[in-house]
Amino acid sequence: MPLATSATSAIEYVLQLIALFGVAFALFHAVRQRGDAFTAADKLSKQGWIAILVIALLVLLVVPVINFIGIIAVVAMGVYLVDVRPKVDDIQRGPRW
Fold first, then answer.
1. Cα–Cα distance for residue pair 94/89, rounded to 1 Å
2. What pLDDT is attached to residue 38?
3. Which of 3, 34, 39, 63 lies at 20 to 30 Å from 47 by C-alpha?
4. Residue 42 — left, alpha, or beta (φ > 0 → left; ψ -120 to 50 → alpha)?
5. 3 state DSSP class of 63
6. In terms of pLDDT, which residue wins out, 58 or 95?
7. What is the Cα–Cα distance from 76 to 84, expressed in whole angstroms?
8. Own/partner pairs for 20-26, CB < 8 Å, 24+ apart?
9. What are the domain boundaries of the chain?
10. Burial of 40 (C-beta count, 10 Å sphere; 0-12/13-18/19+)
């Protein structure tokens, strides 16, 4: 039984590190972007996304990722990385030929 507990703890630790890295990456990306790119992409403002991602980072620093509120923080990060980030990047790159 102790082996299963240590394996579970190791998996939770790895998931926590991945989530923290992902939120930190998303926050770093959001901070570096122009504010008008968010509104041009019809997304929440830059300040709104930075606030969401800072809260997600703080939550993941305190709460385990397998907790319900930790899952909400991971979902917020996922929405930013999958939906907002590509559109903001496309707006700033301009049209492709």
1. 9
2. 94
3. 63
4. left
5. coil
6. 58
7. 11
8. 20/57, 20/60, 20/61, 22/74, 22/77, 22/81, 23/53, 23/56, 23/57, 23/60, 23/73, 23/74, 23/77, 24/57, 25/81, 26/53, 26/77, 26/80, 26/81, 26/85
9. 2-93
10. middle
User: Could you read off the pLDDT of 15-63 as tens digits, one per residue?
Assistant: 999 999 999 999 999 999 999 999 999 999 999 999 999 999 999 999 9
Residue 53, both tokens: 């991602």
Q: What does the chain come to in residues? A: 97
Residue with tokens 């492709």: 96
The per-type count for the chain, helices as H runs and strands as E runs, is 5, 0
Which token pair is 6?
Answer: 């240590």
**pLDDT grade, residue 92 (50/70/90)?**
confident
